[in-house]
Amino acid sequence: MRDFRDAKAMAQTLSEALAAKSVSLSHAESLELVARILGLRDWNVLAARIQANRQAASSETSPVAAAPSSAQTDVPIFPMRDLVLFPQTTTPVFVARDKTRRAVERAMAGDRRVLVVAQRHGADNDPSTLQSFYPVGVTASVINSQTQMDGILKVTVSGLQRMAITRLIDGEFLAAEITAIEEQRGQSPEAASLSRMVLDAYRTYANVDLSSLPARQRVRFGLPSAENPGLLADTVAQMLPTGIDEKQQLLEASDVVARLEKVLALLSTARPEQ
Questions:
Q1: What pTM was computed for the model?
Q2: Spatial separation of the C-alpha atoms in residues 144 and 163, rounded to whole Å
Q3: Alpha-carbon distance 224 to 196, whole Å?
């Protein structure tokens, strides 16, 4: 009998069964549906559970030379009221809460890694439960920190990788156990085709002609090559003037094709900031 570890196979079977009845369902939609059928919130939570199960099985069968785990524990959290950070993005964040200051100190004393995650309610001054946060954030490296004249700490962080929160640890600072989220269909023909469409749409959105520019010169406009569809989607998503909820949906889209489709849809209706 299949269980949660067979989720991808179950999603494929579901998609094929529905297609036979002329019902179209994308692979990403099938994964989300399977997660809910199994009683979990979404695919990211299910994927984290699958990966944790694999790591546990690996440690049981190879106790002497176990493979390195992608799960991390006690990673300090930076709760964000109005920011969704994406991988490969560098930005300043401003820290005033004492707990987050202590999280900065812990990160600076260690490997400088933190989890930047958006909180669901900006007015919440002490988010401390799983329900206080969106389920997916980004690990980031703290580049530097500096206390400003008003006493607020300015911290520059650089996004690294999408992570699902599996457990919170509330102490002197807020920390979390996290599991890496694997990207899907990042190098598929659909992703490559959509990347070109996103670049064209961004050209129209920003009123910039990128078509005649070599790839190296496009970097000046903050855009990577279409050869890296996942990074392209994240870069454009970070620049769009959309709300927290929409950006969080893009961050949680582990399927690169689905993420590019969402970015393309937003570009068709967005207007550049003046």
A1: 0.70
A2: 22
A3: 11
Last residue of a domain, one of 180, 202, 230: 180
Cα–Cα distance between 218 and 237 in angstroms, integer?
17
pLDDT at 148 over 70: yes
200 within domain boundaries:
yes
Residues 43 and 10 in one domain: yes
Given its phi and psi angles, is residue 103 left (phi above 0), alpha (psi -120 to 50 degrees) or beta? alpha
Count of domains for the chain: 3
101/153 same-domain check: yes
Distance separating alpha carbons of residues 165 and 136, to the nearest angstrom: 6
Range of the domain at 173: 72-180
Q: What is the rounded CA–CA span in Å between residue 253 and residue 44?
A: 9
Q: How far, CA to CA in Å, does 141 sit from each of 77, 87, 95, 224?
A: 12, 11, 15, 20
Q: For residue 66, is it within any domain?
A: no
More confident residue, 119 or 27: 119
- For residue 62, pLDDT over 70 is answered with no
In the predicted structure, residue 63 carries a pLDDT above the cut 50: no
pLDDT reported for residue 41: 60
